[in-house]
Amino acid sequence: MTGLLPGILTGLDLTGVFFFAVSGCLLAARRGFDIVGSVLLGSLAGLGGGIVRDLILDQGIPNAFAEPVYLVPPLLAAGLVHFHVVRVERHRRSLLAFDAAGLALFCVTGTSTALEAGMGPVPATLLGVATAVGGGVLRDVVANEVPQLFNPRGVYAVPALLGAGTTTLLREAGWLSIPSGAAVAVAVFALRLLSLRFGWRVPLAARRPRDWPPGTGPGRR
Amino acid sequence: MTGLLPGILTGLDLTGVFFFAVSGCLLAARRGFDIVGSVLLGSLAGLGGGIVRDLILDQGIPNAFAEPVYLVPPLLAAGLVHFHVVRVERHRRSLLAFDAAGLALFCVTGTSTALEAGMGPVPATLLGVATAVGGGVLRDVVANEVPQLFNPRGVYAVPALLGAGTTTLLREAGWLSIPSGAAVAVAVFALRLLSLRFGWRVPLAARRPRDWPPGTGPGRR
Amino acid sequence: MTGLLPGILTGLDLTGVFFFAVSGCLLAARRGFDIVGSVLLGSLAGLGGGIVRDLILDQGIPNAFAEPVYLVPPLLAAGLVHFHVVRVERHRRSLLAFDAAGLALFCVTGTSTALEAGMGPVPATLLGVATAVGGGVLRDVVANEVPQLFNPRGVYAVPALLGAGTTTLLREAGWLSIPSGAAVAVAVFALRLLSLRFGWRVPLAARRPRDWPPGTGPGRR
Fold this sequence. Notes:
3 copies of one chain form a homotrimer.
Chain A: H1 6-30, H2 35-57, H3 63-66, H4 72-82, H5 93-116, H6 121-142, H7 157-173, H8 178-197
C-alpha cells in the first residue's frame, strides 16, 4: 500500500488551489468586487476546502496557514484575471471550467491526504468529496449566490464521489501513483464538463406527481 | 452525577440527525435541487451542528466522519422525501416540524456530549444551543435563505436554551436519564411548535420609537 | 521580544468583541430580527472571528466557549441597541463605524494571539487578518447579505493587513506594548473611516476593457 509522495501531493494540491482560486477571482470580477476582494474570494475558493479538511483531520495548524507558499496561487490567479489573461466573460463558461479542474484535482488530493492521515476508506472518501466541493460552496455562499453544487443542470458531487472512491480503491490496491492519480483527475474533469455540455441531470429531490401541471409545486419558489 | 449511556446518546443523536436531514431534503425539494443536492443539504442540516460541536470540543475527528453510520439518516431522509413518503408541501409546515424535532433532540444530546467531554455547565449549555441551531443555520445559509433562527415569528433559540439549560441542571443533580432527557426534548419540541402556531414573539432588536409611523425605520429594508 | 500581557490582551479582545457585537445587533435591527436574533447575530459577529482563529490555532476549546465572560459584550450590545443607546439608523453609518473599531482592535489582538501561540510572522499576520475580517463576514453571510469585505467602496482588508503586519513587525522588534498596539489600532480605524468618507477605491478585480461601453460587462449582474 503506497500513496503519493508528499512533494507530488503538495504540487497537485497547489495546482488545485490555483484552479479554484481562478474560479473565485472570476466570480469576483462578475460581481464587480475590487482586486483585494478578488484575492480574498480566490483565497477562500482555493484554500477553503483544504482548511475545512485539515480542521476535521485535527492535525495542528492547516497547511494553508502554516505554509506561506499557499498564498502564491490566489495572488497569481487575481493577477491573471485582473489583466484578462484568463478570459473574463459575461457567461460562466470559464468559471465553470476552472471550478471543474479544481474539483477534479481536490477529490484526488483530498482523499489521499485523508488516507495518509490514517482515516479509514469510507471516511477518507467522504472527506475527499467534502474537500473537493467545500471551496466552491464557500466561494458561492460568501458571494451570496446559490452554490453550483446545487445547480440541477449537470452533475457535480457525483464525479467528485467517483473520483474520491476510485482514489481510495487504487490506494488500497497499491496502485495509486502519479499517472493513475492524474488519470482519475482527468476523468473527473471530463465527466463534469460533459455533464455541463449535455445538460445531464439526476432525478429531482422530490418526484413531481403526475397530477401537477408543469411549473407548479415545490421547486418553483 | 451520571450522564446518558453512550449507546443511547448515539441513538438519540442519530434520530436528531434524521429529523434535521428531512428538513434539509424538504428545503432542497422546495428549491428544485436534484436528489444529490438533497442528500448533501440533508447531510449538512443533519450533521453540520454536530461537526461544529466536535470541532469546538477539539477531540479528534468528528463523529460524522469517523462513524459511517451517520450517513444513513441523510440517505434515508432523501429517499423518503423523493418518494413523497414525507409530505412535500408548498408551505413550510412539515419542514418546520422536522426542524423543531431536530432542535429538540440536539439541545439535549449536544449539551450531554459537551458535559461528557468535561466542559463546565455554562460552556456546555452554550455549546448545546450552538449544536441545536447550527445545522439549521448552515442549511439555510448554504441554500441562500435568511435562517429560520432569525425569523421573528415564533421562538427558536429560546426553547433550545431552556432545553440545554435543563439538561445541564438534570445532569448536575444526577437526574439525567433516558426518560428525563426525552421529556426535555418533548417539551422543547412542543414549545417551538406552539410558538409557531400562536405566533409568539419576543421584542424586536430595536424598539420602534413612538414617533415613527408603522412600516418605516429599521426592519423595513 | 515581548508581547502584550495576557490580561491586557483579553481586555482589548473583549473590547473588539463588543464593537463587532454592536455592528451585528445594528444589522439585526435593520433587518427586523428580534432581540434574541440580535444577541445571536451580535455573538456571531463578535465571537466568530476569534472562534475561527482558535480552531485554526488548534489549542483546545476556543476562548469564546471556555470563558463565559465573552458572553457579556454581545448581551450588552443587544441591550444598548434595543434601547437606542447606540443610534439605530436607516443608513449604515454607525454600523460601519463599530465594524471599523472591531476590525482595528482584532487585527492587533488576533495577530498577537497567533504570535503568542508560536506561529511564524507571515502565518500570524494572515491569521490576524482572518480574525479581523472573519466576524464581519460571518455576520453578513448569515444575514444573507454580500459581505462589507467585498464592497468596492472604501478599503477594508488593506487596513487590516497593514495593522496586522505592523503588529508583527513591532513584536519582532520588541516594541509591541499597550501604547504601540493601541496606536496601530487607532491608525487602522482612521484609515478605514477615511476610506469610507472619501470613497477610496482600489482597482477592480478585472480591468474594464476600453471597447466596452460603460455599464456593460462583468460587474453588472
